Amino acid sequence: MRLAREDALLDAAMELFGERGYAAATMDDLAARAHVSKATLYQHFPSKESLATRVVLRTIARTLDTMRSLDQGRPAIERFEICLRQTLRNRFEVARIAGDALSSLQAIVMDDPEYRARHAELIEVLTGMLRQAQAEGALDPALDCALLARLPVAIIRDVDLPRLVHSGACSARALTDTIVTVILRGMGAPHAVKEA
User: Fold this and answer.
1) Do 118 and 43 contact (CB within 8 A), yes or no?
2) Model confidence pLDDT, tens digit, residues 73-131
3) What's the CA gap between 101 and 17, in Å, rounded?
4) Among 27, 38, 129, residue whose Cα is nearest residue 84
5) According to the CATH classification, is domain 48-185 in 1.10.357.10?
6) Are 164 and 175 in contact (CB under 8 A)?
7) Per-residue buried b or exposed e for 45-83, using 16+ beta carbons within 10 Å of the residue's own CB
8) Domain boundaries, the chain
9) What is the pLDDT of residue 163?
10) What is the dihedral of CA 114, 119, 125, 127, to 10 degrees?
11) What is the model's pLDDT at position 167?
């Protein structure tokens, strides 16, 4: 019952943050939106920061569930691409609800021990997929998979990329396609000259 209520509160928070932005939304607004008292809300989340952190943690948990549920018979590089696209969609959604407070919200969330543990788990799953892709011959065996797994995460953390989407400079789909293409296939033409 408690988990169901927390899920409902997190859903309401995502809606509210999406409409008003993280900075403008208040715990009073959320209590009214979720039809609970402020006391009940604070029993679940002691602050707006803890609430926002839980929104992000739930998103990561769902991403990990998706990663683990993918058909293991499918090539690892395909599974990696699906995971990368899902992670980008989640990132753009979090950026949308955070609005102009993305940098400060990111700092709060990244300082959370549970977030760091989930992040490490995400990197571990991605690293495993990339190692399998190497074994399947779809990835250069000379590359360090642990570093490769961190590369898209580092790109996704860049606060300027979601702002491109938010400002209308490009669509989330176009940005996602560009990032996925560069990570999986590189920027150079197949005949590009290698550095001496």
Assistant:
1) no
2) 999 999 999 999 988 888 888 877 777 777 788 888 888 999 999 999 999 999 999 99
3) 11
4) 129
5) yes
6) yes
7) beebbebbbbbbbbbbeebbeebeebeeeeebbebbbbb
8) 48-185
9) 77
10) -140
11) 81
